[in-house]
Amino acid sequence: MSHFNKILVVADPTVEEQKALSRAFELAEKHPCKITLFLSIYDFSYEMTTMLSADERSSMKDAVINDRQKWLYELARTNGADMDNITVKVDWHNRPYESIIKEAISGQYDLVVKGTHKHDVLKSVVFTPTDWHLLRKCPTAVLLVKDHAWPEHGKVLAAVNTGDMDDDHGNLNSGIIEHASFMSRLLNSETHLINAFPPTPINIAVEIPDFDAIEYSSNLKAHHDKSLQELASKFDINVNNLHLKEGMPEDVIPELAENMDAELVVMGTIGRTGISAALIGNTAEHVIDNINCDLLAIKPSDFETPIAV
């Protein structure tokens, strides 16, 4: 679904400016929706207080939760929220990303909105940040918010892959463009499409003497160009808004987004998990650290989250 009627906003108690909440309010002004301001908290010391009974520990946790709920209400009120269209919820959970995903699924939200910041690449291999877990495992669309403003007539950049137009890729491309077009209408803007195609593998040219690298690159570009134009025609995207670039997506997308001063990048993520995610990562994860605007990530329609509700 590309119409965000129910939004889950993740609050961040460590910062003063709640970028995610501000962005959700902007969406609500342009497209009426219900907003839930959500916070996941946990303090291991409450579980280890052996001198207290289970009931006493439970009462202490309830007191903390009630205090955080009051903080969320005040946060919403001071930011000018329409209190009739916003609710708050605090969950006691030792894994914030699991808590967020479970709430997103059980509450049947259309969008999760979370503020983000640049990650330490070295640390990310050892400990994956919450928003990376959301990109990999959350079945709901995820909007990661940075400091970039959303002015009127802003640009929305949709990253598609036209190299392999099987049903799975075709459906994901359609979902990406539908979401991007919806956001473009909210911003009174136009949708741009970016498709990156890989450069000619050097090892092939070395190992196969008769291999014509120039012809191969030309044919590959022509294939992607034709597929991109066909996809754009299907969704009535202006041909002047098509961008075909040679290179890796994690390099090409941030460069174009900066050059065109995009307000939002929309892309799909396959949700790679396990060892491959730790060592290789996902394209969306590499992109979010290299763009200075928001990222809207969506999953394929048949995506199954590894998080049990």
Your description of this structure?
- This protein has 309 residues and is an alpha/beta fold.
- The protein has two domains: 1-115, Rossmann fold, CATH 3.40.50.12370; 148-309, Rossmann fold.
- Helices cover 44% and strands 18% of the residues.
- The chain has helices at 19-30, 44-47, 54-78, 96-106, 121-126, 130-137, 167-186, 202-207, 213-234, 249-259, 274-279, 283-288, and strands at 6-10, 34-41, 86-92, 111-115, 141-145, 156-160, 191-197, 242-246, 264-268, 294-298.
- It has a ten-stranded mixed sheet, sandwiched between helices.
List keywords for this structure.
309 residues; alpha/beta; Rossmann fold; 10 strands; 18% strand; elongated
Contiguous runs where pLDDT drops below 50 for at least 5 residues: 274-281
What's the average pLDDT? 85
CATH topology of the largest domain: Rossmann fold
Largest sheet: 10 strands, mixed
**Residue fraction in strands:** 15-25%
Biggest sheet: strands side by side, in what order?
3-2-1-4-5-10-9-6-7-8
| N/C terminus separation | 21 Å
Report the count of strand segments: 10
Concise account of the structure shown:
This protein is α/β, with parallel strands linked by helices. Helix content is 44%, strand content 18%. A 10-stranded mixed β-sheet has the order 3-2-1-4-5-10-9-6-7-8, with helices on both faces.
